Amino acid sequence: xxxxxxxxxxxxxxxxxxxxxxxxxxxxxxxxxxxxxxxxxxxxxxxxxxxxxxxxxxxxxxxxxxxxxxxxxxxxxxxxxxxxxxxxxxxxxxxxxxxxxxxxxxxxxxxxxxxxxxxxxxxxxxxxxxxxxxxxxxxxxxxxxxxxxxxxxxxxxxxxxxxxxxxxxxxxxxxxxxxxxxxxxxxxxxxxxxxxxxxxxxxxxxxxxxxxxxxxxxxxxxxxxxxxxxxxxxxxxxxxxxxxxxxxxxxxxxxxxxxxxxxxxxxxxxxxxxxxxxxx
Length: 280
Ligand code: DHB
Ligand code: FE
Fold this sequence. Notes:
Blueprint: E1 3-10, H1 14-21, H2 31-34, H3 38-47, E2 51-56, E3 71-74, E4 78-81, E5 94-95, H4 98-110, E6 116-118, E7 122-123, H5 125-134, E8 144-150, H6 160-175, E9 182-188, H7 205-217, H8 227-234, H9 242-250, E10 255-266, E11 269-278
Parallel strand pairs: 1-9, 2-8, 2-9, 3-6, 4-7
Antiparallel strand pairs: 1-11, 3-8, 4-5, 10-11
3,4-dihydroxybenzoic acid binds next to helix 1.
């Protein structure tokens, strides 16, 4: 059976792509952010995943406002990155694992999640940049991937409770896959941020840190909040923390906190990073 080795959760911000392209990792603005990653590289070298299941939200590259699935799973042989208008360089395509994709799709539909299945799928900065941060030195991402996309850009959004249930079912699906392969679950988005409106620039450090801690000791804590409450607490784009919640829910049993980093701001965002290892 496949083994879930753990989870990595991180913010995604298009400006990170420009910082990577410009080799700005040691620049004083970027250093506290990029310095969070070497311990993650060490952990990846130790746990050696074969496949990354990436829980992220598309921002209008593959799905636009006219057609917006609540939950979508990729089932393509390969996923292309493309220009999404932020002026960041595009990255080489990502290999899929169609066997795991279809296993996950079958299991989730069996458990009454009505998914959109994507045999072609473009992936945006929320998918490409975290993978580049995790494997910075390889020209192409060295693990196969399965994209799992959750709508956080157009209302109505799935609730925190629903995203937790999706994550749990996703983890069960991965763990029931009959393949001797190691899987890391990666969740990208958040933490608190708001890009426009009266509260543009809003961050909530107290909430972010409480949320990060809850994933270790009380993973369902955030499910008590409605979407509106999460927007109030974390900003209109802060709801992307639902990706962290689904990722934690996919990890079976208790987890051990391997590493965290938290830095304000990266662009308009409170940037968080966390590595959770499955206890068993
Ligand atoms: C920013 C943050 C995001 O999550 C995103 O998708 C785009 C931009 C930002 O802070 O600039
Ligand atoms: Fe985003």
